[in-house]
Amino acid sequence: MRRLQTYTSLWAMQPHDQSGVKLPYDQVCEMVAGAGFDGMAIDLGASDVAVAHAVRPHMERNDLTPLIVAFPKTVESLEDTLKMAKDFGAPFVDVIGQVMPIALDDMVPVIETWMEMSDKIGMPIQFETHRNCITNDLYTMLQLLDRIPEMRVCADLSHYVVDREFWYPLSDHDLGLISRVLERSDSFQGRVASRQQVQLPLDFPQHQKWVELFKGWWREGMTSWRDRNATGDCIFLCELGPPEYAMTGPDGKELSNRWEESLIIKGWVEDIWSDLGGDE
């Protein structure tokens, strides 16, 4: 059976909106589960292992599946995170590698070593398209994908829209580059960016062209996922980060309600999935 599984992020829930209030973990998990999310990502860049263990019982009580997001600063340090994620019952570890060689030839053995760790421990990994990490640049990422056919991707395309400063409308050439990433992507993240801003409020009129662009990419990515997978879970993470990801006004308050926006994105993705055939 193929299923869509929607997640949000603990990082995105601290705070969850422009009130600035940080809810305790039990209330966060009740809120996330009550909204119909299937899981929640624990970001070890925004928090730490102690936080992961603290929130775990509240997630289990609310039947939320944990997804571990790792920021390994050394090649060796990913091993402990993989073991922890396996114990937590995570579907995979989302790797945002802080080991960042300059040369492609030096990047390849880093990626391959992490993949060997993954196979040895029995915990799948995906490499997120993300700035300030080993997959920082779209062009380098495409070369890595060519060099390492087994490398799998978690697609957060907001980073590459900013990274490349794509003009709108995107050229066929640039759209083709993104399609190459989506063809290797096994999960997806929900955030809408423009060429200058990594996270846009969703309902501003001037942002609608970017909203439609990202909705099209999510459809393309999930279509590709379904073509490649007869069974399994397609995981979509609605990850709307707090300031300074979220845009703010002169008073320092956010310009939109991220919790409400996460539910909007969740609804869009569920509609796309249903249109493609739904759970089956």
Automatic annotation (TrEMBL):
It comes from the Bacteria. InterPro entries: Xyl_isomerase-like_sf. SUPFAM superfamilies: Xylose isomerase-like (SSF51658). This is Xylose isomerase-like TIM barrel protein. It comes from Litoreibacter meonggei.
